[in-house]
Amino acid sequence: MKVIISSDKTSGSKKGFAIFKNSIANGSKVIGLATGSTPVTLYQEWTESNLDNSNLISINLDEYVGLTPDNDQSYHYFMQKNLFAKKPFKHSYIPDGIKAIKDPEGTAADYNKIIAENPIDIQLLGLGQNGHIAFNEPGTPFDSVTHEVQLTENTIKANSRFFNNIDEVPKSAICMGIANIMSAKEIVIMAFGDNKAEAVQKMVEGPVTEEVPASILQKHENVTLIVDQAAASKLSTNYND
Ligand SMILES: O=P(O)(O)OC[C@H]1O[C@](O)(CO)[C@@H](O)[C@@H]1O
């Protein structure tokens, strides 16, 4: 894993965006995208750039079960607001959180088919405080594919900051599995802030274990981790930018 330590989130996000721009210039066509607060600055860079997405396909990691695309907490809405409105892709895939209410297995199977038909060239990831990637919580099998995830109390609490109150946070999501994520040819994972420091340390330096889903990234041959000083503060090795 290549580790880039940036002075702050803005410079880290610029470096992250540069990796995507370069990868697209070199022929990447299928782009895996993430939500959460981590990628917002990277998406700002993207919308302000001259990059043209009209020949690209995007595939998002996850969506809450039960939220319509026009719900301002849905990941459909998030992507529209932060990237797609200004930089539309040829086609953008996000799991169908409404179909998933009645048919989570069918929704997940549809999404696995989409990923199989559109192998991901480069995938963006954030990192949960407990080491989760997308909504794959500790204990998720490394060979998992798209599935319905029951959100843990920790994640519901962490994400409640975006909702009016904690009871509005959906209890489950449709989420790419760890095997889907690992199938991407290249991965960029970003983490900023001291609340991510422990997860970063375990992901990079700890054992590869399903208890820390992101630790599997140690086994991927083309991963770049971008962190700020705070998120890097528990790493024991000195990684130079
Ligand atoms: O970027 P944030 O908001 O810190 O969230 C970290 C991770 O948690 C999630 O929001 C899921 O809870 C992921 O989508 C994200 O990668």
Describe the model.
With 241 residues, this protein is α/β, with parallel strands linked by helices. It has helices at 9-25, 40-48, 75-84, 99-102, 104-117, 153-159, 178-182, 197-205; strands at residues 2-6, 30-33, 57-60, 62-64, 91-93, 122-125, 147-150, 172-175, 186-191, 223-228. The chain has a single domain, classed as Rossmann fold (3-Layer(aba) Sandwich), CATH 3.40.50. It is built from 8 helices and 10 strands. The strands form 2 sheets. A 7-stranded parallel sheet has the order 1-10-9-6-2-3-5, with helices on both faces. A 3-stranded antiparallel sheet has the order 4-8-7, with helices on one face. It is globular and about 50 Å long. The relative contact order is 0.19. The model has no long low-confidence stretch (mean pLDDT 96). 6-O-phosphono-beta-D-fructofuranose binds next to helix 6. Keywords: Carbohydrate metabolism, Hydrolase. It comes from Lactobacillus kimbladii. The active site is at residues 62, 130, 132, 137. Catalyzes the reversible isomerization-deamination of glucosamine 6-phosphate (GlcN6P) to form fructose 6-phosphate (Fru6P) and ammonium ion.
What percent strand?
15-25%
Secondary structure category: alpha/beta
The percentage helix is: 25-40%
Q: Name every ligand kind in the structure.
A: 6-O-phosphono-beta-D-fructofuranose
**Can you count the beta strands?**
10
Alpha-carbon distance between the termini?
13 Å
Give the overall form: globular
Mean pLDDT: 96
Rg estimate, integer Å: 17 Å
The string of secondary-structure elements, in order, is EHEHEEHEHHEEHEHEHE
